[in-house]
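Reviewer 2 asked us to include a model.

Predict the structure of this chain.
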Amino acid sequence: MIDEELDDTESQEEQELFEHFRFEITGGTKPVRIDKYLSNTIQNASRSKIQNAIDAESVLVNEKPTKASYKIKPGDNISVVFPHPPKDTTIVPENIPLNIVYEDDDVLIVNKVAGMVVHPGYNNVSGTLVNALAYHFKDLPFATENNIRPGLVHRIDKNTSGLLVIAKNEFAMTFLAKQFFDHSIKRSYLALVWGDFEENEGTVTGFIGRSNYDRRVFKMYEDEEKGKWSVTHYKVLERLHYVTLIECRLETGRTHQIRVHMKDIGHPIFGDETYGGDRVVKGTTFSKYKQFIDNCFDICQRQALHARSLGFIHPKTKKEIYFETELPNDMQAVLEKWRGYHKNVLSKEEE
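Predicted model (structure tokens):
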């Protein structure tokens, strides 16, 4: 008898792309090799895929890495993490320029521009990061005609800029997916949010799920049956009167997580039209102030959110590598506008 639980995180409620299987071996199960057991038990799991997972220490027996030759026995608790790319879609290679921060035989670090969708989907069949990868890296094993494997182990929103790691082979995908599952990937974002904070740092937690009124929007719930657990740590970097620049560090990777968390605590991200940041949330009623805000919205025509840094253990060297990128021009320009406004307000207060 097998007790199986599957967390299919390919769904739109996840930014991290992996699938997790759990098995509890109960009485009456014959002692067979674990690689054979898993290939017979998990649908479409080839022996090579399972071996890659074992080599990446993504197959655990009683919370410890195992070998392919291990023979299962009653009482064993087995955990398996596979990389899980989006559903197969016809990918048309497109010559779209990419800002490549780093590349070796195993991983690729891309600094995604705001406005680019990561993977084709409804209403976004072209112009995506995957279309660009299929063109620039057409010889990679995950980009063959009959097996679209774009190397994705996570993604960021269309109108969020910043760093993404792309796996260049099956082992790297499995190795990185395990780190996302273990929450050991180090990620930080810079966000310009409405309002000032009483504290210098804090943590937002709760269950994130889809809204009952608009399936494109996510919200916080107290009931775990309505959402998935999420954790964001934030730190104030710069106070600019009616807005604040903060750093956010993720423990989990739910869709729209930072955007939902900031709205929930009363600090929607500046310019975020989905979560109430595209209007005057804090400030005065003077027409000059309203014009100033409109000018800021014209400069940064999206949510002011940037995936600044990314750190992880390299699949081959097993050493930690870390990458950081500067703010894009639109966010930098808006920050300078707010710094000027803040300086002007302070000078008037001193008069």
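The radius of gyration is 23 Å. Residues 1-13, 143-147 have pLDDT under 50 and may be disordered. We have added this to the supplementary material.
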